């Protein structure tokens, strides 16, 4: 079986060293020393002012929406993971979809302005597959209309734009450190911001609103993460550059093997350093995609229609975004993980080319 993704697992002894410390201190959660150490190391690695380690990338979005006091309508993208939309609805706001830019697959910033109403409070955009949104235009529109900006940067760890981490854009960026992400803490995520006041609000939110044992600030949630998860992050961070380099090599090899395949590969027009977090490809038709998924499945190759369906088709949403509808019906992510072998990549490519050649005859 070749799965679509495999989590990175570091050498066990390195994790065990951290476990020994946890046992000695008997401090498992509630803002322990390893959580603090991970936050420090991440801020250093990414050159950020403020970052909080939280339970996952979904609660990160919920905390971000709460911290900015958003209400009414939030302009967002229909081409993202369900958590981007469900967090908006969970926080009592209404997602308003703006269609995507077929080049970047992110929200089409040039279409945002016509969707703004007197109910709009923010823009929540996703850097899809780590491909940056048009951050400059989004910032300009948000400033002109006095809107907040949140970036769902779940896929964008390590990506740089304008010489700095992509997490530095927007009022808040959120990330997921789920086991399938390039940097992971098994489960986990982060909220990142520049404003210390917003940081303070998010720190209260993450811990039930606690301001000391008997005083509370705002409506909180349990968004904390544990020493065990932080330890996994501390070890994995040592291997991150190696993991990204390996994924880059795998991506370039796929591109070579698949050069005769009649598909399009999304590019990264705005990024200076990319993280190779996924290997998406866009088929000419949904029919060809389904034929390919079927044959790959027969040979036990996992792949994923990511993202499908377009989020405007959820039971609790709506909206007319034909480009996202069309793209989500034709896009497929191939297996990509650091231990994927050249032989496995060759087999995947052979199967995909076989579908194409069979369909021609
Ligand atoms: C774009 C996007 N946003 C949010 C999330 C949610 O992150 P988590 O699984 O850590 O809650 C994901 C997870 O896959 C995602 O891909």
Automatic annotation (TrEMBL):
Keywords: Aminotransferase, Pyridoxal phosphate, Transferase. Its EC number is 2.6.1.-. InterPro entries: DegT/StrS_aminotransferase, PyrdxlP-dep_Trfase, PyrdxlP-dep_Trfase_major. One of its GO terms (molecular function) is transaminase activity. Gene3D superfamilies: Type I PLP-dependent aspartate aminotransferase-like (Major domain). It comes from the Bacteria. The keyword Transcription does not apply. The keyword Protein transport does not apply. Belongs to the DegT/DnrJ/EryC1 family. PANTHER family: PROTEIN RV3402C (PTHR30244:SF9), TRANSAMINASE (PTHR30244). This is DegT/DnrJ/EryC1/StrS family aminotransferase. It comes from Algoriphagus sediminis. The lineage of its organism: Bacteria, Pseudomonadati, Bacteroidota, Cytophagia, Cytophagales.
